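Researcher: Sequence recovery benchmark, item below. Answer with residues only.
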């Protein structure tokens, strides 16, 4: 812990004797991420350790998406025929992460991971945009109303009453792929490449501030022999530039997205973006209790900094191939209200113009 924040915490502990006992979780958006005592690893609790070097033989991060202007952003990679089909039967709860999640089997005997809460809508939109420009994503959809047989979960009970849930994200990895670990932003096979830098830009376009390594995944594809690197948890998008309270304003919140900055510095060769932003406001809002979270997230702000102009322009040229209707369709896929969709699309089109003009 750095000296200034140790001093701040010391002052708070002296001024408020009960402060230590009443300290909130360092990051309320990630409270409860520890595995419960006695929980064992199962097929639904995938490997969250960094992928080993001996597991990587043919890594891929990006592929040529072809004619971007013809892609279906309403239904995404899975297409209309790939949508989850009722009836749905509960399989097990996933206690990793912060959002309520559980696995179901659908009427076509396909397994899906369901996520509830504020990340459901923005995650599917983010997935559509990443897929459109050539990055790998899971097949995912948002369903507005779902009944699940035998549903019983310990988190998010208020979002799942009598087996019925409202807005829910359904995600499934393609057949033949198995998660083998996570990948690290600081150390991976693509560091310094155009595609890796473009992914960093995409995080800024969407205001994805939750860039912990645990939110990245590597899948081994048996058919192709490739190890697919993707950002697999992208629900902290289309809200603020960084962690803030209340957490609902940091994810899928139009007002926060409208107020956020995009480009913060421009030189002859590089560009800096505002996302991910150091959560200074969060540190103040928690009266210093979020010191560790602040320092961890402050160490991630390099992801949006010192990006070569040529790489930012390149991803801007790909995004620029999307039509207005495709962007609208991406937000329809997330079931955002129409009045919000119009504003979101206007902002994104503005950001695309800025990238193309670099």
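Model:
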């Amino acid at each position: 812990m750095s000296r200034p924040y140790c001093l701040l915490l010391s002052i708070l502990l002296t001024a408020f004797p009960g402060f230590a006992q009443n300290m909130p979780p360092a990051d309320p958006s990630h409270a409860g991420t520890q595995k419960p005592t006695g929980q064992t690893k199962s097929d639904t609790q995938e490997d969250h350790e960094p992928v080993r070097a001996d597991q990587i033989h043919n890594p891929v991060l990006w592929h040529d998406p072809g004619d971007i202007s013809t892609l279906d952003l309403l239904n995404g990679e899975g297409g209309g025929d790939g949508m989850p089909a009722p009836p749905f039967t509960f399989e097990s709860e996933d206690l990793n992460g912060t959002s309520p999640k559980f696995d179901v089997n659908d009427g076509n005997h396909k397994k899906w991971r369901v996520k509830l809460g504020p990340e459901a809508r923005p995650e599917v939109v983010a997935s559509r945009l990443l897929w459109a420009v050539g990055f790998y994503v899971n097949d995912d959809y948002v369903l507005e109303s779902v009944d699940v047989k035998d549903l019983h979960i310990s988190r998010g009970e208020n979002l799942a009453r009598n087996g019925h849930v409202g807005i829910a994200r359904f995600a499934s990895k393609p057949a033949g792929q198995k998660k083998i670990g996570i990948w690290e932003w600081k150390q991976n096979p693509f560091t310094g490449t155009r595609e890796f830098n473009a992914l960093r830009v995409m995080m800024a376009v969407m205001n994805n501030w939750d860039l912990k390594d645990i939110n990245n995944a590597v899948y081994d594809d048996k058919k192709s022999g490739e190890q697919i690197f993707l950002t697999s948890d992208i629900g902290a998008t289309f809200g603020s530039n960084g962690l803030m309270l209340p957490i609902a304003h940091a994810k899928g919140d139009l007002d926060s997205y409208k107020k956020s900055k995009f480009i913060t510095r421009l030189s002859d060769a590089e560009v800096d973006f505002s996302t991910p932003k150091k959560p200074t406001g969060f540190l103040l809002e928690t009266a210093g209790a979020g010191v560790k979270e602040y320092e961890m997230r402050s160490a991630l702000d390099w992801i949006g900094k010192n990006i070569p102009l040529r790489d930012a322009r390149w991803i801007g040229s790909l995004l620029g191939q999307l039509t207005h209707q495709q962007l609208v369709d991406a937000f329809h896929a997330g079931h955002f209200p129409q009045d919000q969709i119009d504003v979101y699309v206007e902002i994104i089109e503005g950001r695309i113009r800025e990238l193309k003009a670099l």
